[in-house]
Amino acid sequence: MRSLSCTLLLFVALVGKATNAFVSVARAPGARAAQKLDIPRCLASTADDKDSDKAKYDHTLAILAMPSTSVDRIVNDAILVAAVESSNKLSVVLRCEGRDKPTLASLRRYVGEIYSQLWDCVMEQGENLVDLDVVVYPQNLPNAAPESWIDIQPDLDCVCSHDALCGWVSEAATGRGTRFQDSRGIGGVEDHVAALNRERKSRGLNPVDALPVQLSGPVLEDPSGTVVFLEDDDGLTSNVKYQIDCRDDTSEVNDEGCGLLSGAIASREHAELYDHVTVGGTFDGLHFGHRKLLTLAVSSVTPVTGKLLVGVTMDEMLTRKKYAEYIPSLKDRMEAVRKFLHRLAPGITNRVKLVPIGDAFGPPGQPDSHFDALVLSHETLATGHLLNEHRKSLGLQPLKLLCTLRTEQYGMSSTALRRKRWNEMQRKAEKNVTK
C-alpha cells in the first residue's frame, strides 16, 4: 500500500451577501460523532460551532500534496482547517513524490507556509486550541519521519485528506473534486483508510476513521473560462517581453527619455493586462490583505491607457458588521486607499477613480459599464460568477475574474483589526474606572 501523489472582494461580498464556495467534511460511514461540516471560503472555520465539548479526534493525520497551482493550495488549506477543527493532535504529511520533485528550498518554504496557515487557523479558534500539538512531515525533507511511521502510531484515530490526494496512483491529481483523475488517481480517502486499517489490524492497533474533504463550488468549477489565478504561472512567463515606453504624459523624464513614474511597461503580448479593471472592498483599516489586492489590481491595468476603478463600500452598508462602530468613515477609508495607490503607482494616479458603493453589484453591474476585468479573492469567486450572470442578462460581456489566494485570513482581516480597537477601548475604560 503506497500512494503516489504530487500534487470583490466583489461588491456583493462587501455588504455581507456573498455566496461562498463550500468545503464539505463528511465522516466515513460508522465514524463516531458523524457530522457534516460546511466550510465557507475554502479556508474558513466553522465559526458557528466553537463548542469546546464538540467531539474531537485524539490524533489526526492530514495528507497534503506539494502544490503547483492555486487550486492545489486551496485544497491543502481546506484540509488543514478541517483537521484543526477535528483534532487535539495533528500530524501533517506533505507528499512530494512523482515526476517533478521540488527543490529542498521550495520544500522548506512551503513547510513555513503550512505552519503559518495552521497558526492563523488556531488563533481564530480561540484559546482552546493554542496548545494544539502539530508536526509537519515533508516526505522529501532529509531525516523527516516517513508517512508509514505515522500510519502505525497507536494513538492515531483519523485520516483527513481529499480523494484526489489518496489514490493508489495520483501523481497528477490536483484536488478538483473527482475521484478518478483520468485513470491517474484510483481510490480515495475512504479506500486509503480501509487499506490502512487492514495494516493496523495486523499489528493489533485500533482502526482509524476517514475524514474526507469534499470541495465544490466556483473555485473548482469554471465552465465559462473566465477565472485567472494571478499567482499561477500560466506558461507565458518565458514569452513576456518588457519594453520601455514613455507615452504617459504624467511621467517625469530621466536622461534615457524614460518615465520615472510609469515604471517598466509589459508588452501587450502578456495576456493578463486589461484596459478597464475594477476592484472593490470595505478597505477598513487598509490591512495588508487590502494592500495586496490593490497591488494586484494595479498590476493588471494596461500601462499608459488602462484605467482602474476602486469601489469602497458606503457606511450604511456596513452597520451589521461586527464591531461596526469601529469602522472608519467612508471619507477616511477612501482617503487611505487614495494615499496608498499614490505611493504604489504615482504614474497611474490620473487613471484611477474611487467611487462609493451602495448596491449589490456596483458599477460593473450597470447597463452602461465598460469593464473587462475584476480583481477579487478566491473566497468571493462565487459572487464574481453571479456578477457575470447579471451582466449577461444586461447584454454585457462577462468580466475576466482575476483571482488571488487570500492567505492568513483570520489574523489579517478587518474584523481582527476592529476587535483590536475594541479591546484597546475596553482596557482604557477599565483604567479609567480604577483611577
Automatic annotation (TrEMBL):
Residues 1-20 form the signal peptide. Residues 279-419 form the Cytidyltransferase-like domain. The keyword Signal applies. Keywords: Signal. GO terms for biological process: coenzyme A biosynthetic process. GO terms for molecular function: dephospho-CoA kinase activity. PANTHER family: BIFUNCTIONAL COENZYME A SYNTHASE-RELATED, DEPHOSPHO-COA KINASE-RELATED. This is Cytidyltransferase-like domain-containing protein.
